[in-house]
Every structure is written in structure tokens, then in C-alpha cells.
Amino acid sequence: IKKIGVLTSGGDSPGMNAAIRAAVRAGFYYNLEMYGIYRGYEGMIQNDIKKLHSGDIAHVLERGGTFLKSARSADFRTTEGRQKAYNNLKSHGIDALIVIGGDGSLTGAHLFYKEFGIPAVGLPGTIDNDLSGTDATIGFDTACNTAIQAIDKIRDTATSHDRLFFVEVMGRDAGFIAINAGIGSAAAAILIPEKKMAIEELVEKLRIRTKAKKASNIVIVAEGGKSGGAAEIAEKVKKHLPYYDIKVTILGHLQRGGAPSSYDRLLASKLGVSAVEGLLQGKYDVMAGLINHKVVYTPIKRAIVDDKEVDEDDFRVAKILST
Ligand code: F6P
């Protein structure tokens, strides 16, 4: 392997820049040529590919977003699109890839390896934390910190007005951000897709808290919940608790931005280096992750299987603390 292409794809996450920088630095350390593929697989198809120099990665470690930009490519799902992408890679002499993204992005890398034999190492880049083979994905810790800071602010005004707030957090169909931010912000209840909570149970919980004269009530709702988002849940609860002044806040994309936390910088840096080293050691079609502080390479096919579960104990702790 002499030339490696790096791309970020799917929803961006804080720490992607740090991961790119680490991979490119490691590539230079091992005397490789490093290429930036802009706008993910879309840029690969449109030949938006440039050789990277050390100046390109100066002062990016601490910045949110991804300077390589990101996209969700519909064309890469087609055989013609992937063929075009392959031709472009070959025209640059790129013989391996580092793909930073979530399950869709890593699925693309896996398919591409199967079809064209382009060795790839994936890095888990998503705020959702929904990939197996790593304790945390790059950006998850920052997103949780951002959510907690926002919820702290909501609590100030919720307490001043004796209001009940429903705060919706991201996570697609996973509840990792919700459970983490919920525990970290002393939520009255946390609704996640993985655990059903009947409206009656939630209402009862809120009634008990009212009797106990709790200063404020904030319910965290994961966006992918089966009973609906924060607005729908609030609507249903309102019917049972009409005397409550209820407000809804959807945190949305602010959870995806901002400077990466210390943990995400370390995680991204370790994984960026491991991606290059993995390729040099012949580890193809794998995702590099961190488990118990050790780098682990997991076959991409295994990493994208949707079986990473919210820790039962986190849920138990959240329940105890919100009673
Ligand atoms: O996967 C990251 C994520 O932020 C999810 O939490 C969210 O459901 C989705 O992306 C939003 O995607 P988009 O930015 O395309 O609206």
C-alpha cells in the first residue's frame, strides 16, 4: 500500500477532523501518500480527490465538523456509481481507503471491498454510538456533553417557571445519547427506543414527582422512540396532566457541532493511527474501535450489525435516580 484515500461520510460528528488528521499524520510517518476524498462517496464518484499535505491538516484537530465535508450518496448505492468511484481511485493510484462514518458509510466500504477488492479500514464516526466493536464512537462523548449543557440551561428556565419540559435528543433509532444525557442532567424520565414506557407509567412518575415537590421536571426523549418524538409524547401527557405548563425543545443538529471533547480527540487520534497501521498489517474490511482502552479490529460486517445495546445497568441507575 502506497497511497491511501481518506473520506468522511454520513452525518458528521465532532472528532472527525481529529481522526482525519491522525490518519494523515500516521500516513506521512510511514512514508505513504495521503489523499482527501471530499464529500464522501459522492466526491469519489465525482473525482473530488486531492493529495493532502501537512498544511491541510494544521489546526483541524480541535475543530468540529469535517474539513473533507460529508454527504449521503445515493449514487454510491448503484453499481454504476461504484464503478465510477473505482475508476477515479485508480486514476489517482489510490490503493486503500480509510472511511470515517456510521453504519451506512461502513456498509459502503464493505461492499466496495467485496466488489473491487479495495482494502478499507473503517472508523466509527457518528454521534449515535450505534456501532459494535467499540465502546464509543467518535463524536458521541461530545454530543452528550453538548446535550447536557443545553439541558442544564433548559433546567434554569424550567425551574423558574415550574414548567415540565420534554427535550428530544438525536440518536436515530438508538437511545445512547438519551440515556447518557438523561443520567447526566438528572432527568425525571428517559424515553428510549430500546425500552417501552407506557404513557400511563410516565404520567404516574410525573405525578409522584409533583407530590414530592420536585423543583423541575425534564423528560428526555430519544428521537427514534416508537411512541413518537418529544412533541407527540408531550401532547399525550398534556391530556393526563392539563394543569402542567408543558414545553418542548428539540436539540437537533446542535448536537452534531462543536469542538470535540478531550475523550473524542484521544479516541479519534488513536483510531486514526490504527487505521493506517491496520492497512499496513493487511487488516482489510475491518473497523478499528477502542474496547477497554485497547484498539480492536472488528470485521465491518460484524460492527454494523445492530446489536449494540444500551447498558441495562445505565437504565437501572437512571430509574433509581429519577424516583
Ligand atoms: O446519524 C447521525 C444523526 O445525527 C442522527 O442522530 C440523526 O437521526 C440523523 O443523523 C440526522 O440526519 P440529517 O443530518 O441528514 O438530518
Helix content: 40-55%
Q: For the record, give the distance between the C-alpha atoms at the N and C termini, rounded to a whole number.
A: 57 Å
The shape is elongated
Rounded average pLDDT: 96
Low-confidence stretches at least 5 residues in length (pLDDT < 50)?
A: none
Largest sheet composition: 7 strands, mixed
In terms of DSSP E residues, the strand content is 15-25%
List ligands, each type once: 6-O-phosphono-beta-D-fructofuranose
* Helix and strand sequence: EHEHEHEHEHEHEHEHEHEEHH
SSE class: alpha/beta
Subcellular location: Cytoplasm
Pathway: Carbohydrate degradation; glycolysis; D-glyceraldehyde 3-phosphate and glycerone phosphate from D-glucose: step 3/4
EC number: 2.7.1.11
GO molecular function: 6-phosphofructokinase activity; AMP binding; ATP binding; fructose-6-phosphate binding; identical protein binding; metal ion binding; monosaccharide binding
Could you outline the blueprint of secondary structure elements for this entry?
Layout lengths: L2 E6 L7 H14 L3 E5 L2 H6 L3 E3 L27 H14 L3 E6 L1 H14 L3 E5 L15 H22 L2 E6 L6 H9 L4 E3 L7 H13 L5 E6 L7 H11 L5 E5 L11 H19 L5 E6 L2 E6 H4 L8 H11 L1
Parallel strand pairs: 1-2, 1-4, 4-5, 5-10, 6-8, 6-9, 7-8
Antiparallel strand pairs: 2-3, 10-11
Helix pairs in contact: 1-9, 5-6, 6-11, 7-8
6-O-phosphono-beta-D-fructofuranose (F6P) binds next to loops.
How would you sum up this structure, described in words?
With 323 residues, this protein is α/β, with parallel strands linked by helices. The chain has 11 helices and 11 strands. The chain has helices spanning 16-29, 40-45, 79-92, 103-116, 140-161, 176-184, 199-211, 230-240, 262-280, 300-303, 312-322; strands spanning 3-8, 33-37, 49-51, 96-101, 120-124, 164-169, 189-191, 217-222, 246-250, 286-291, 294-299. A 7-stranded mixed β-sheet has the order 3-2-1-4-5-10-11, with helices on both faces. The relative contact order is 0.18. The model has no long low-confidence stretch (mean pLDDT 96). 6-O-phosphono-beta-D-fructofuranose (F6P) is lined by residues 11, 102, 126-128, 170-172, 223, 256. 6-O-phosphono-beta-D-fructofuranose binds at residues 11, 102, 126-128, 170-172, 223, 256.
